[in-house]
Write a structure and sequence with these properties.
397 residues; mainly beta; Leucine-rich repeat, LRR (right-handed beta-alpha superhelix); 2 domains; 16-stranded parallel beta sheet; 5-stranded parallel beta sheet; 2 helices; 30 strands; binds 2-acetamido-2-deoxy-beta-D-glucopyranose; leucine-rich repeat; LRR receptor-like serine/threonine-protein kinase GSO1; repeat; membrane
Length: 397
């Protein structure tokens, strides 16, 4: 008889179930790919008989119910993709028996309960994606045993408790996304040992305490998102060592203190978002002199003070500048009006005054907000003309 070793029916518009599928003729199958069809119903436990499988891809279908525990019999499996189905069991701890797994994707199902600690037996695992489920355990410290991981995505679950310090054993990890969970406690300083990280997102959790100074050891980091937490330290000066950063978001925390001058080393930064914190102190010219690539500079809702330095006019890539709701004082630097790429400028709720240049040629005047400053009446009238605000300022007083 002809032996079938591979079945690839991906994206064939098949409407079917596997419930009555006879696996007997296919016991030597090494690759089984049904992804991107309309399969529904359960994944039958008989799948565990396909003991030679190295690839099983049932992703992007309508399978529902449990991940069968018999999956643990597939000890040759290297690639398992069940993403984008309606699986609603917990993750069976037997998955830890699939010790050859390098790629495991269970994302976008309705899986609940624990991430089993047996996951630590998957020493070959490089890619683990459990995002968009209802997992509600803590992150097992055994995950730190998966030392070949390069990609780890647990975003959009209900994970709670602390980020285990064992995460620091993941020296190959490049991508770590834990955002949109309920993680609390402080960020473990061991994270600084993950020296291959380029992408780190811990946003929208309940993290508190310090940004650890060990973050400065992440010299490859390009994307750092810690927004929407309860971090309440100052920014450690070591953050300035992360000179590859292009995206830094610390928005909506309780961070305080002055910005360390070391941040001037972030000469690749394009998106710098620090708004809704408790930062104080001036925006020193030397601080921003190297931010020449910055396009989005969002510092609103803090307690910054002092003058807006004229050097801001050298940040010629600025698209979006928001300094509103601070205590900036003195005159608005005329250099600001020379920024050619700016689309949105908000200086409202400060103590600023003029003068303004003769001609302001701004592409979107409705996106300039100069309201609630310390203008003289003449300046207030000019600022109204610049922005075409709906009501002219009162000229009686
Ligand atoms: C599986 O392979 C073995 C050894 O090559 C062979 O004897 C057996 O008939 C095959 N079974 C199936 C179902 O193809
Ligand atoms: C496969 O597995 C099921 C359940 O695990 C078992 O009942 C059955 O005998 C096995 N053999 C075949 C050929 O399906
Ligand atoms: C899981 O899905 C199955 C099949 O859709 C359903 O019968 C079962 O009630 C669900 N279980 C839970 C815990 O939601
Ligand atoms: C996790 O969710 C399940 C199902 O909703 C629930 O029974 C269990 O108590 C939850 N566990 C925790 C630790 O919250
Ligand atoms: C930060 O928050 C922690 C935990 O809520 C608290 O113990 C600590 O005193 C706070 N530190 C600062 C500097 O406010
Ligand atoms: C400018 O900022 C203030 C305060 O942060 C905000 O209320 C206002 O809507 C902003 N203006 C524009 C035009 O976005
Ligand atoms: C407002 O402007 C006046 C001069 O026009 C100045 O004396 C005063 O200090 C300014 N107030 C603040 C809070 O900057």
């Amino acid at each position: 008889s002809t032996q079938v070793s591979q079945i690839d029916l991906s994206y064939f518009d098949i409407y079917a179930t596997l419930t009555h599928f006879n696996f007997t003729p296919f016991l030597n199958l090494t690759q089984f790919n049904l992804s991107g069809n309309y399969f529904e119903g359960p994944i039958p436990s008989a799948i565990g008989n396909l003991s030679k499988l190295t690839t099983l891809d049932l992703g992007h279908n309508f399978f529902s119910g449990e991940i069968p525990v018999e999956i643990g019999m597939l000890t040759e499996l290297k690639y398992l993709d069940l993403r984008e189905n309606s699986l609603n069991s917990s993750i069976p701890s037997e998955l830890g028996l699939c010790t050859n797994l390098a790629y495991l994707d269970l994302a976008s199902n309705s899986l609940e309960g624990k991430i089993p600690s047996s996951i630590g037996q998957l020493k070959e695992l490089q890619y683990l994606d459990l995002r968009e489920n209802s997992l509600n355990s803590s992150i097992p410290s055994e995950l730190g045993l998966c030392t070949n991981l390069t990609y780890l995505n647990l975003t959009s679950n209900h994970l709670e408790g602390k980020i285990p310090p064992s995460i620091g054993q993941l020296r190959e990890l490049q991508y770590l996304d834990l955002h949109m969970n309920s993680l609390d406690s402080s960020i473990p300083s061991e994270l600084g040992l993950c020296s291959s990280l380029t992408y780190l997102a811990l946003a929208s959790n309940h993290l508190e305490g310090k940004i650890p100074s060990s973050i400065g050891q992440l010299g490859e980091l390009r994307h750092l998102d810690l927004q929407n937490n309860s971090l309440n330290s100052s920014i450690p000066s070591e953050l300035g060592l992360c000179t590859n950063l292009t995206y830094l978001a610390l928005t909506s925390n309780k961070l305080s203190g002055e910005l360390p001058l070391s941040l001037s080393n972030l000469n690749n930064i394009t998106h710098l978002s620090l708004f809704a914190n408790r930062f104080t102190g001036p925006l020193l010219p030397s601080l921003l002199s190297n931010w020449t690539k910055v396009a989005h500079l969002l510092l609103q809702h803090n307690s910054f003070s002092g003058n807006i330095p004229p050097e801001i006019g050298r940040l010629s890539n600025l698209i979006d500048l928001d300094l509103s709701r601070n205590q900036f004082s003195g005159s608005i630097p005329l250099t600001l009006w020379k920024l050619r790429n700016i689309l949105s400028l908000n200086l409202s709720y400060n103590n600023l005054n003029g003068p303004f240049p003769e001609n302001i040629d701004f592409p979107f005047p409705e996106n300039i907000d100069l309201s609630n400053n310390n203008f003289t009446q003449a300046e207030a009238f000019l600022s109204w003309k610049i922005t075409f605000a709906s009501a002219p300022p009162s000229l009686t007083s």
